[in-house]
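Annotated sample (chain length 100).
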Amino acid sequence: MRQIRFQILALFCSIHLSGQNGSYEFEQISSDAGITFNAISCIVEDKHGFIWFGGNNGLYYYNTSDIIKYSFDPQKEDTPPSNKIIDLYRDRDGTIWVCT
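Output written by the structure step:
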């Protein structure tokens, strides 16, 4: 009886595992995109799946096709208060917090 239960459990596990598709695609981001990789101090993923990088040279946003750099500009209100990003944090609501 115990062996039959084990065989049924093994059957369900094998069906579940064989149904998963393992196709992944990896892409390498080069420094030609404008990121100084040795200066990156933190990385976070937002609620839409996009990647944010923070470092000594500013804040970077990567949306799988473009890299956008956000730098401190005293003339604009919607820029980071400093180019030196110490940490990035995503809270429960999905808001990204930038620590400078």
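Annotation: The first strand starts at residue 40 and ends at 45.
Annotation: The chain is about 15% helix and 30% strand.
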